[in-house]
Design a protein that fits this description.
With about 230 residues, the chain is mostly helical. Helices cover about 80% and strands about 0% of the residues. The protein is built from 12 helices and no strands. The longest helix has about 50 residues. The radius of gyration is 29 Å and the shape is rod-shaped. The protein starts with a helix and ends with a helix.
C-alpha cells in the first residue's frame, strides 16, 4: 500500500519547490506513527473539527494515511540507496589500495622496460603526473593501452602481459565503484530530496489537523492532548 500511496503522490511531491522543503525534525518512524495516531484521534472528532474550525477534512485529515504511506515508501527508497552507497564506499576503501599498488608497479615496470626509449619514458612521465583517485583510475587505463601498444620491450624485461588486461579491467571496476562510493557523501541525492518532500507534504496535513484540534479543544484537556506531538513533548 505504501508503494501505491507513493506513486499516487509522486506528481504532487515533484511540484514542491526546493525552497519549501522541510527536513524531518524527528526520526521518520516517529513522524509516521504520530501521523497515524493523529488520524485515528481526529476521526473521532471529525464533526467538531469540520463544524468549528473550517478544517478541510478531505484535503488534510482524510489524506493523512496516504501522505504517511508515501513518506514510508520514500524513506525506504532512500535507506536502500544509502545502504548501497555505504557498501560501495566500504568496498572502495578495501580495494583501492590494490589498484594504487598495481598502478605504481606498472610505472616501475615501464621505467625499466622502456629505459632505452626516451619517447616511451616521456609518455610514462605524463601518465605518472597527477594525483587522486580519478587520476589513478585513468592511469591504469592509459598504462594498459601503452603496454599493449609496445609489448616488445615488456616481453624482453620478463613482464607478465596478463597484467595489462588486469589493469584495464580494474580501471573499469574502480571507476564504477568510485562513482557509487562518491554518492555516499551526496546529501542532495534524488532519493533524499523526494523523502524530504514526502515529509514536507505529510507535515502540512499534520500541522493543519493539529492546529484545528488545538483550537477546537482548547478548553477540553482530554481531547486537546491528542493534538500534541508526544515526541516533541519529551
Amino acid at each position: 500500500m505504501s508503494k501505491e500511496n507513493f506513486e499516487t503522490k509522486l506528481v504532487v511531491l515533484n511540484k514542491i519547490a526546493n525552497d519549501d522543503i522541510k527536513i524531518p525534525n524527528m526520526p521518520v518512524d516517529n513522524v509516521l506513527q504520530e501521523a497515524e495516531n493523529l488520524y485515528v484521534w481526529a476521526s473521532t472528532d471529525k464533526k467538531y473539527l469540520i463544524n468549528n474550525s473550517g478544517l478541510d477534512w478531505a484535503k488534510y485529515a482524510k489524506d493523512l494515511p496516504i501522505r504517511a504511506g508515501a513518506l514510508r515508501h520514500a524513506q525506504s527508497l532512500w535507506v536502500s540507496e544509502r545502504y548501497s552507497q555505504e557498501e560501495a564506499n566500504k568496498a572502495w576503501k578495501e580495494q583501492s589500495p590494490k589498484a594504487y599498488e598495481l598502478r605504481d608497479d606498472l610505472l616501475d615496470d615501464y621505467r625499466y622496460a622502456f629505459r632505452k626509449r626516451p619517447d616511451l619514458l616521456g609518455r610514462v612521465r605524463e601518465i605518472a603526473h597527477g594525483s587522486g583517485d580519478a587520476d589513478m583510475i585513468q592511469d591504469l587505463s592509459d598504462l594498459s593501452v601503452l603496454g599493449k601498444s609496445n609489448p616488445g620491450e615488456l616481453t624482453i624485461a620478463k613482464f607478465k602481459l596478463a597484467k595489462l588486461d588486469l589493469a584495464a579491467q580494474l580501471s573499469n571496476d574502480m571507476a564504477e565503484l568510485l562513482a557509487k562510493a562518491n554518492g555516499a557523501t551526496q546529501e542532495n541525492s534524488l532519493a533524499k530530496e523526494i523523502r524530504d518532500k514526502a515529509f514536507t507534504h505529510l507535515k502540512e496535513a499534520v500541522d493543519e489537523v493539529r492546529d484545528a484540534g488545538k483550537y477546537v479543544f482548547k478548553n477540553n484537556p482530554e481531547r486537546f492532548k491528542g493534538y500534541i506531538s508526544k515526541y516533541n513533548r519529551k
